[in-house]
Amino acid sequence: MISADVVIKTQFYDLDPMEIVWHGNYARFFEQARCALLDKLNYNYHQMSESGFAWPIVDMRIKYVRPLRFPQSVKVTATLVEYENRLKINYLIQDMKNNERLTKGYTIQVAIDRNTEEMMFQSPVAFRQKVEEILCD
Q1: Edge to edge, what strands does the sheet with 101-109 contain?
Q2: Rounded CA gap, 81 and 107, in Å?
Q3: What three-state secondary structure class fits 51?
Q4: What pLDDT score was predicted for residue 23?
Q5: Which of 14, 84, 118, 129 is most buried (most C-beta within 10 Å)?
Q6: Looking at residue 137, what is its pLDDT?
Q7: Which residues sit opposite 106 in a β-bridge?
Q8: 124: cis peptide before it, omega within 30°?
Q9: How many CB atoms lie within 10 A of CB 23?
């Protein structure tokens, strides 16, 4: 499938009182990797909106294997694993020094028609075509 990576260096403001990255920041890290993946597909949020669809996240899971600490550099990989009926993206966070797996998770998004606000049970043709163009290369 199609993947994209981003490198993130944890910041002091990412930490909780226990001096590890606060759990809520992982969703932000996933978002950065997801946007890199959507840019690769040329179907990021502006293109989604212009095509007449919104793609809210309807499900998210995060498995915290090991904590992120300050100042740690990590690679966040987003991989598209389903696209025909919904958008499922798997995530993996790895330490940049030793490739240790630190966190994994996934998000599921569904297309919503922006005019009717109805959920689509199939991904829009414009999106499926963009994915299939990359898969055929």
Answers
A1: 3-9, 73-82, 87-95, 101-109, 57-64
A2: 10
A3: coil
A4: 97
A5: 14
A6: 78
A7: 61, 90
A8: no
A9: 13
pTM of this structure: 0.95
Given this model, what pLDDT does residue 1 score? 86
Task: Classify 111 as helix, strand or coil.
Answer: coil
- Alpha-carbon span 72 to 130, nearest angstrom: 35
Burial class (CB in 10 A: 0-12, 13-18, 19+), 93: buried
Residues 29 and 85: beta-carbon distance below 8 Å: no
d(CA 3, CA 90): 9
Task: Return the H-helix or E-strand segment holding 16.
Answer: none
The span from the CA of 30 to the CA of 101, in Å, is: 15
Query: Residue 21 has what DSSP assignment?
Result: B
Closest CA to 92 of 75, 80, 109, 107: 75
109 pLDDT more than 90: yes
Burial of 133 (0-12, 13-18, 19+ CB in 10 A): exposed
49 residue type, one letter: S
Tell me the C-alpha distance between 32 and 75, whole Å.
11
Beta bridge partners, 6, equal 76
Q: Which two tokens mark 59?
A: 């499900």
Q: Which residue has the tokens 């998770």?
A: 105
